[in-house]
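User: two proteins, same treatment. go.

Assistant:
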Amino acid sequence: MPDKKTQKPKKKYTKKELNHFKQKLLAERERILKELSRIEEALNEASDETEAAKQSYSNHLADLGTDYMEKEKNYYYADQEGAYLRAIEAALERIQRGDYGVCSDCTDLISEKRLEAVPAAELCINCKEKKEKLERGGR
């Protein structure tokens, strides 16, 4: 029996492991879709309330400003959730193609620990850190 030091590093995840990550991704997609639905309802309600408030002279300008700020915050959250939803969809496509869990930069296997924390990850932790450092203007 070969010892752990001489074993080749794993190149792919097993079908069982891939199914586990697929289920995590599907659950996360469902959560995001519910959240986007909630945000959409909040935006629709805010629009209705804002229109009613515009027609009423009794509302203070500060109240209207607060309403607009809440609306902008909901747009921001929707944008963030939408971006994450696209990342989840891309991860599900990688599972379908058979290259899920492989870093898109260095082609090393992304650690199971990282995928448990961020199942839609397409970069290993080293490549992600390098990318973030470059984005911040580092070397």
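Protein 2:
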Amino acid sequence: MIIAGAGGHARELLGILAEAGRVEDVFLFDDVSPDAPAIIWGRFPVLRSADEARRILAGDPGFILGVGKPGARKLLYEKMIALGGEVRALTSPYARIGVYQVEIGPGANIMTGAVITQDIKMGIGCLVHCNVTIHHDCRIGDFCELSPGCHLLGKVNVGAQCSIGAGAVVLPGVTIGEKAVIGAGGVVTRDIAPGRIVKGMPAK
């Protein structure tokens, strides 16, 4: 198994894997950071080239997205698929996932304390950070990042590659266009156009 990334978020994923008893034969992959270590915590090797990653994927094609930013998650997803990988989801055993009509796309990271209720649909490669809540009838596009402690209330629609900041609240029925960014602590009371950056209370 490869974690695609070797920074802070990748190390958090190693913790979730440890909680699930799945830390055997785990590698990290970072071919862009010149200062990336060769090994994490004296145990987890960091692959530094596409050829190294391809060799590991030939034996075990599974990989987990281990970076946070939406654009980086999409790029790494495409790179690892091209190397022969198959994306895997990783969900903390301490997250709570609803039992009715919940569709979580491949490659999601669901972190500790996240609460996902009922009638939820989430696209490919989404990151749901610690203590996020996603309420009924929400729709979330591919490669979105929901930062720690943010809250999507009922019937929120989030376009692909959006970033919702830490502690932000999106009120019921709001639509957020793709690649929009909501600042930390923002309260979103109305629809946000694609590509917009908003912050504040109410978010502007």
